[in-house]
Amino acid sequence: MIRIALSRADVVGMGEVGRRLAGALSRAGVQTIPVTRTQGWDEAREEDRGACIVCVREGSLADVLDTLHNVPSKRRALIQKGWIRPLLHDLPDATRGLIWFTSRKEFFQILRPSPVSGHLAGDLALALAEGGLAAPVNSELLRLCDRICATTPNRETLS
User: Phi/psi at 23 (nearest 5 deg)?
Assistant: First the structure.
């Protein structure tokens, strides 16, 4: 078994994406703490807690980021199904990931590896891969998504 450097993660948003990510992290031996609408917020905002992985719907993202504004950028990872251009430009230091799988209740299928980029990318990708969810570190692909979003008029999300 590979030694995983990421030992703890607060997973904000326990919908389909959050549940799948939390499951993969748990299988990799990462202590995974769910943060839901009603629990875990105070703990997630504490310093020295490991990664704070945000997996919420686009409509909730601004409020969640406002609530977590004191969480250091080196702890933040924003994992989304689509590309949220207006909110990401203010968070250049946050780790980002673009999910390429489909999931509904018990059904789950990886469409292609889900790229991650940023400070936590290496540790997060390793833990997710160990837990069965391929997530290569791919800064170039994420930059390409940024360029596509920048040239797509009247679109908030590229999915």
Answer: -60, -45
pTM greater than the 0.90 cutoff: no
Cα–Cα distance, 102 to 111 (Å, whole number): 7
Query: What is the secondary structure of 13-56 as a DSSP string?
Result: --SHHHHHHHHHHHHTT-EEEEE-SSSSHHHHTSSS--EEEE--
Give the DSSP letter of residue 137.
B
Question: Any idea what the Cα angle at residue 144 is, between residues 138 and 147, rounded to 5°?
Answer: 145
- Give φ, ψ of 111 to 5 degrees: -85, -40
Tokens linked to 14? 């326990």
User: How would you label 17-32 residue by residue, b for 16+ Cβ within 10 Å and e otherwise?
Assistant: bbbbbbbbbeebbbeb
135-145 pLDDT, tens digit per residue, is 767 656 555 55
State residue 91 phi and psi, 5-degree precision. Answer: -125, 55
The DSSP line for 76-130 is EEEEESSEEHHHHTT-TTSEEEE--EEEETTEEEE-S---EESTTHHHHHHHHHH
Q: Are 12 and 38 in contact (CB under 8 A)?
A: no
Run of H or E residues at 157: strand 157-158
